[in-house]
Amino acid sequence: VWWWGLFYIGKGIFTNLGYLFFREGIAQMYWVMLTLAVYSSCLTLFFPWRLRAVNALDVYTNTALIFESSLIAVYTSTQTEVSSSTTSGISAAIVSIGFSPFLIASLVATYILYAHLHPSSSKARASEIELLSKALESFATCDVQEKISFMERVDEWAQSYIMSALHIISSEFDGVSHKARLTDQGLLSKTSSRSMVDSKSASPAKSYFSTNSSNNNNNNNTNNSNNNNSNSGNDNNNHISSNSGTHSFVQRRVSGETATLPPVSLSPIEEPVTISDTDA
């Protein structure tokens, strides 16, 4: 699981805290054994690593460290005298136990590579998938009472394995999330805030486009009504140029670029000339 790294780091921190609080060597060794025992208990309870062989390797490593700490505690006692033969035997046991996890790790790595790369392992996995599919199909065709009686007959370990398999299939195969994590909530909040910022930045451009297009239409209608037929072509050209300039400005505004208002050229409104009888 993704949160097991906190336990792994905490084991190292709490192991070293014993050397600060305790001055006697025997107390320090017992503190180390206590910390490793708590970590091993949590490891046996959760089995956090993806591969079963890696979980077994971690359990063996912590067990070896606990046994090695108990042997080192012999040297911390100053009240009892230990013979030279016993001391040499304890030293040999400490060295052999300290290097044994490296041998076990090499065997585990060889097993993992063989299980994932050898052709026979793929054939065995295909046969296991076929047996699993038949078992799931036969279980799905049963009625509800038979399923309930089956779940009541099996023990607690079998029920736990079945529910674990259900969570794995529904999450990995169907994509169903059973429990929301803090990281998921953070991503959702960031996504929602970003969409709100985008909508706020795009709304002024849309309102500017609608407002300016309506103003341009009103101005052009006024110009067309007041001007004579000879100036109607100029007004239409000015209307097209103003709309195209506004549209390009809106595109730059929505895309996030800063731009100034494009100049809009409009023909001056000509006042109607009235000729009186005296002028004539």
- How many beta strands in the DSSP annotation? 0
Number of helices: 9
**Multimerization state:** single chain
- How do the SSEs run, as a string of H and E? HHHHHHHHH
What is the share of helical residues?
Answer: over 70%
Low-confidence parts lasting 5 or more residues at pLDDT below 50? 202-213, 227-261
Cα end-to-end separation: 101 Å
Q: Mind describing the biggest β-sheet?
A: none
Strand residue percentage: under 5%
- What is the residue-averaged pLDDT? 74
Structural class: mainly alpha
Apparent shape: elongated
- Rounded to an integer, what's the Rg over CA atoms? 40 Å
Could you explain how this protein is built, in words?
By secondary structure, this protein is mostly helical. 78% of the residues lie in helices and 0% in strands. It is built from 9 helices and no strands. It has helices at residues 4-21, 25-46, 52-76, 84-117, 119-141, 144-153, 156-173, 182-226, 232-254.
What's this entry about, in short?
This protein has 280 residues and is mainly alpha-helical. It has helices at residues 4-21, 25-46, 52-76, 84-117, 119-141, 144-153, 156-173, 182-226, 232-254.
